[in-house]
Amino acid sequence: MTENIGFIGLGLLGMPVAANLLQAGYALTVYNRTPEKAEPLVAQGALQAVRPADAVTTGGIVVTLVWDDEALEDVVKSEDFLERLGIGGIHVSMSTVSPDTGRKLADLHARHGSVYVEAPIFGRPEAAAARQLWIPIAGPQEAKERVRPLLEAMGAKGIFDFGEEAGSAVLVKLIGNFLIVSAARSLEEALGIAERGGVDPTAGVNMLTSTLFTAPIYQNYGKMIAEKSSISESKIPQKDVGLLLSAAQNAQVPAPLSSLLLDMLENGDRSRT
């Protein structure tokens, strides 16, 4: 574990994932658009890059975990990024972006002699800290084998291989997030009806999630909704459902539920007031 890993993007999920790498003994060079966010990792021994390319070593591995397609393309197309990565270098993209962007960036890397591997993350920041992440992966086989120990050190509980074609792993991530958001919205509506109908929502959700709906998503979100625990507001559901709908439209696949859910996410807050 003497290889220096570049890590770009220290948001709510990037920070605990990068911290896991440090704790596992990896040397890190980190970059974040807001430099102050890197300070906790620097205090633990990470080096801080001034620009994205400074986190890259020739023939090495660089990880990105940024917000969206535009942010990811900005990093890849920034000065010297691909040139520094060079022949044999691997870029592990853990961002949730569109399949089209994944395919485009994979082609761009190939033209520079480097490799693009998709490895988006299923898991909240607390799951990352507990090393309970699920990671679908896509890219050239040799590169996937090289980065697997890295993903395990980041906190992957399971790694699922979706072949070599770019776009496959992020499509699985988008589908998963669509199902998660759908489940959360269904629970919110159903438990609201239960409460108004005189049924204890906690008792209701406990019965249902211990029998018919035993998936962790139903159990965890059901408990939070029933107990009216705070669920942080996020732009992620709207972004990711929009990306899935775009992917469906590009593939000419009808997606009426995705369209309905996106409309709810865009207008739902106003309808609840």
TrEMBL record:
Q: Where is the 3-hydroxyisobutyrate dehydrogenase-like NAD-binding domain?
A: 167-269
- Identify the keywords attached in UniProt to this record, alphabetized: NAD, Oxidoreductase
Q: Pinpoint the 6-phosphogluconate dehydrogenase NADP-binding domain residues.
A: 4-157
UniProt entry tagged with the keyword Electron transport: no
Q: Does the keyword Oxidoreductase apply?
A: yes
Source taxon at top rank: Bacteria
* The family this protein is said to belong to: Belongs to the HIBADH-related family.
Q: Which Gene3D superfamilies does the record associate with it?
A: N-(1-d-carboxylethyl)-l-norvaline Dehydrogenase, domain 2 (1.10.1040.10), NAD(P)-binding Rossmann-like Domain (3.40.50.720)
Which SUPFAM superfamilies would you find in this protein's record?
A: 6-phosphogluconate dehydrogenase C-terminal domain-like (SSF48179), NAD(P)-binding Rossmann-fold domains (SSF51735)
The protein here is known as NAD(P)-dependent oxidoreductase
